What does this fold into?
Amino acid sequence: MKVALREAGCLRFRPVFLTSVTTVGGLLPLLFDKSFQAQFLIPMAAAMTFGEMVTTVLILIMIPVAYSFIGGQMPEEHEEETVDAQDVGEGDDGWLPDYLQEDKPHASATAE
It folds into this structure.
């Protein structure tokens, strides 16, 4: 489970971090604007800026930590359940419909 958390963290870090940085960067001019028209929008910009920073910390740090605590309390037999990528989609009990499987011809293709 630790390996999965580490891989998921590496995959999620860049898009989440860049989205948060661009959102906060876009709100900073509004947050520090001192014009009369901006006075009504500054509280909204402050709430969105700090909310984005808090949710970024929650998504990137707190959720993986919570999963690691929950995963540490799981019984050992459930921790090792994995699906082999080669088993998915093979045979009649695969997730693909019959007409998309390569082994079987489609009914409309055989009817002429």
